[in-house]
Amino acid sequence: MSLSRAPRRRSISGRALLLTAATVAGVMTLTSCGGSDGGSKSSSSGGNYVTGPSGISRVAKGERDEAPKLDGETLDGESLDTTTLKGKVVVLNVWGSWCPPCRGEAPSFAKVSKELADAGKDVAFVGINTRDTSTQNAKAFEETYGITYPSLYDPAGKLMLRFPKGTLNPNAIPSTIIIDKEGRIAARTLAPVGEDHLRSMIDPILAEQ
Question: Does 44 have pLDDT greater than 50?
């Protein structure tokens, strides 16, 4: 009897090993979709984007996808439509007042946006505030960190769904996307950024002719 049971135990063990291997492979696949893989290429609907070791994904000028129209009411109750900003580099930051990494990167956004505005550069900063159930906390966040540029109020995250599938989507909080002067998606990061990283995303796009 013991001899007849032994193969079954080995068979169950073998199946368990296969399931474990499949689970590990699935986790590795999900992890690789995060975007920070030291310079890999990924396909987008308009071409390829390259993600560097800093976690910043970039698209060559001739291969960029058109950014969607992002419009609605800002935290201050004003109307904003990002398509009216063509001719400027648009720095789009997705954030929430409840998000610790957003709080960590906010001083860099406040500083860089102010310096570029004071220098008269063709750059417009726009926030998308999401998952805040009221504007009160979001406004307090902006006041605390000195954020002076407008943010669209998008508590349900509907604006992020306007980005076409396969493009550089802002599918994390925080996310930062750079839109070039022609209204096309040029760069993205799905991680909080400091001042140097933020400038490294903006400056090459601003310098394009």
Answer: no
pLDDT tens track for 94-104: 999 999 999 99
Q: Which residues pair with 126 in a beta bridge?
A: 92
In one-letter notation, the amino acid at residue 89 is V
Q: Name 51's bridge partners.
A: 40, 57
pLDDT of res. 198: 97
Return d(Cα 179, Cα 181) in angstroms, integer: 7
Total residue length of the chain: 209
Residue recorded with tokens 């040029």:
186
Is the peptide bond preceding residue 174 cis, with omega within 30 degrees of 0? Answer: yes
21/102 Cα distance (integer angstroms): 36
Cα(68)–Cα(165) distance, integer angstroms? 11
Mean pLDDT of 83-88: 97
| Kind of pairing between the strands at 151-154 and 79-81 | unpaired
Buried b (16+ CB within 10 A) or exposed e, 114-140: eebeeeeeebbbbbbbbbbeebeebbe
Rounded distance, CA 13 to CA 26, Å?
A: 20
Residue 123 near residue 202 (C-beta atoms within 8 A): yes
Residue 179 in this model has a pLDDT that exceeds 50:
yes
N-to-C CA span, the chain = 81
